[in-house]
Backbone:
């Protein structure tokens, strides 16, 4: 039976790969990004917005509810990265990172949960990063924005459990996407060497965990954070 899946940040990279995967499995996918849609499929709907714009997010969820009456799965994929020493990090950079990564995740979780609460069922997947447990130099603010998402994930899982909504998070290792293009090669190599399995992650690795969290049999799994590549706290 097809599901209604909402994925943020679907214009490229991980979000686009996840969207295409679930479209191939005959689901209805709703995506969003700052830009116009880069996916052309009869079962895909796209919204162009800033994910930290409260009014835009509220209106988007209202429109989805009006058309489909439900939302089965929310994947909060949208995010931005920045690599700066704390001595050279501006307040503007901090605001952008937290507004996109944390506030965007919060707004979509809050609004979609209102829909899931009424249907008494739902799956929410958030995105963190291995930069958080590895305490990578140069990623203090980026990792902090994702640490906020981890705490939010675990607390939200308790608040939403009475409505049969699970909330979990995935922490990918570096994936070869635009997000890491600006990071020096030696920094990427240093990160990969800290992993138990020393390779880049793939879209398939991430989709595998999404499938696990979304599976009907995973209704007893919530408040969990899975880091890929064998990274430990």
Residues:
């Amino acid at each position: 039976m097809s599901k209604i899946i909402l994925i943020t940040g679907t214009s490229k990279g991980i979000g686009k790969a996840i969207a295409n995967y679930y479209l191939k499995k005959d689901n209805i996918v709703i995506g969003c990004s700052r830009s116009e849609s880069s996916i052309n499929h009869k079962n895909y709907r796209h919204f162009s917005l800033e994910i930290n714009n409260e009014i835009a997010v509220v209106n988007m969820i209202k429109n989805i509810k009006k058309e489909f009456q439900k939302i089965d799965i929310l994947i909060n994929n949208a995010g931005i990265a920045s690599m700066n020493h704390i001595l050279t990090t501006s307040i503007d950079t901090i605001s952008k990172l937290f507004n996109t990564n944390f506030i965007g995740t919060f707004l979509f979780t809050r609004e979609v949960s209102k829909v899931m609460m009424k249907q008494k069922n739902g799956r929410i997947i958030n995105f963190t990063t291995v930069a958080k447990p590895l305490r990578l130099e140069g990623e203090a603010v980026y990792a902090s924005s994702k640490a906020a998402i981890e705490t939010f994930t675990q607390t939200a899982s308790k608040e939403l459990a009475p409505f049969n909504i699970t909330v979990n998070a995935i922490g990918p290792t570096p994936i070869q996407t635009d997000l890491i293009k600006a990071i020096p090669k030696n920094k990427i190599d240093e990160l990969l060497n800290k992993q138990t399995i020393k390779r880049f992650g793939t879209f398939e690795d991430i989709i595998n965990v999404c499938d696990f969290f979304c599976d009907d049999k995973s209704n007893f799994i919530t408040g969990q954070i899975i880091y890929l590549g064998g990274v430990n706290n």
